[in-house]
Amino acid sequence: MILLFDVVSASAQKDSLKHKTDTLPDRFYVIQKVERDGEKLPEIEIKEVTISGKKRLFEGFQYWRYERMVYNVRKVYPYALIVRDKLNEVNARLEQITDEKQKKKYLKDLEREVFRNYEDDIREMTITQGKILIRLIDRETSNTSFDLIKEYRGKIAASFWQGIARIFGTNLKEAYDPVGDDLLIEMIILEIEQGRL
Description:
Layout: H1 2-19, E1 32-36, E2 39-43, H2 63-96, H3 100-123, H4 127-141, H5 145-153, H6 155-167, H7 183-193
Antiparallel strand pairs: 1-2
Helix pairs in contact: 2-4, 2-7, 5-6
């Protein structure tokens, strides 16, 4: 009987403790005394904080549009990096080739290889993703897509592809503007590069 009373009593105490709120915080900080300029001051060690400024989300901005932009940028940003790396590789190789015929053959072979490796991926992109890719290529290479085509394929090919792009509502001559029209894209890329997206 006494044993039963002890069990019931212990159970009741446990329930009453469960509902009691603790006045102590969950985290404790150790305050250390640090001497600076002859004075002893309290100091707490805190984690490093990165401040990137207030994000300007425009009036009428909808969260789903932001999420869609994040999705699109994450999908095409790797291709912009591939273009940058490939362009550096091509320029280094072209410096080694002195014969014009060999240069043309190298560029033709490279074009076939690029089409073989990336054509299906590019065809699956939406028009919006294509527009973003054009801007990101300019960001990564400091050249518009029109200038790159003109440099490596000639003015006629560049004009042809510019005409095709205009049919789909984009412009190969558009430059990347990280503080203007492309501010949101730039913020997303910085988040990606810092590993937060």
